[in-house]
Write a structure and sequence with these properties.
6-stranded antiparallel beta sheet; 39% strand; mainly beta; 7-stranded antiparallel beta sheet; 13 strands; 15% helix
Length: 239
């Protein structure tokens, strides 16, 4: 087993019917771009009734059909937003927790100490979060997962991973291992994935490899490290 193996993003998700929600952060092969991607999947009608919407630079999940919303608490939130030289992306309202903490001079880790996994027993869906920090025409990034320490949801285990950026290398964290009942949560370190130079190559490879029945929306942001210009792609299954 090669612990330094780097998979293409399609290889990391293809054939897996339910990886849940996922975040990818990394640097393009030519070393010139920072990439962050976030996708959502869903099994229930409530979860599937969503789209991504970008408003004033903030990425939101929103209901596709407002009349069908059953419980908005865990499915409607700001998924990605910026503060100064930081780009935050998460799978829940902890995006705002991190954002507000940074404004108060606190850290990514301190913000997430105040949160835990989602209260959706028996799955206890993990909260996954990321933050890219830009500096000196380069960047580093952190990823986090907050997950139940046992099947009763008695307490929260918190894991944070910190990475320097390396050309062609990204890391992929997702909420679930695969489908199940209850759904088994993600285990271990974020997976190593390849980041190409072309945002559309990455976007299409990821979207086309996600399970057709369960995928909902995909957001990809690619920032040029020299010019600071940003390219964005959003794909919604509900159009």
């Amino acid at each position: 087993m090669n612990i330094y193996e780097i998979k293409k993003i399609g290889e990391a998700v293809e054939g897996n019917s339910y990886v849940g929600r996922g975040i990818v952060c990394g640097k393009s092969e030519n070393g010139k771009k920072a990439l962050c991607a976030y996708f959502i999947m869903g099994r229930s009608e409530n979860s599937r009734n969503r789209v991504f919407s970008l408003k004033d630079g903030v990425l939101y999940t929103e209901p596709f059909d407002a009349s069908k919303v059953e419980d908005p608490s865990l499915i409607i939130y700001a998924a990605a937003r910026k503060l100064e030289n930081n780009f935050i992306a998460t799978n829940g309202d902890q995006t705002d927790t991190i954002f507000e903490a940074l404004k108060e001079g606190k850290t990514f880790e301190q913000a997430l100490e105040t949160r835990c996994f989602e209260p959706d027993k028996p799955n206890f869906t993990p909260r996954i979060s990321s933050m890219i920090t830009f500096a000196d025409n380069d960047f580093s990034y952190k990823m986090s997962i907050l997950k139940s320490i046992d099947e009763e949801g008695s307490d929260c285990a918190r894991y944070t991973f910190s990475y320097p950026s390396k050309a062609g290398l990204g890391h992929f964290i997702h909420t679930y291992v695969c489908d199940g009942n209850p759904i088994p949560t993600f285990r271990g370190e974020p997976e190593r994935v390849f980041i190409p130079n072309d945002i559309d190559e990455f976007t299409n490879a990821l979207w086309n490899s996600l399970d057709e029945d369960n995928k909902i929306s995909l957001f990809v942001s690619c920032t040029d490290l020299e010019t600071k210009s940003e390219e964005i792609r959003i794909i919604n299954k509900n159009k």
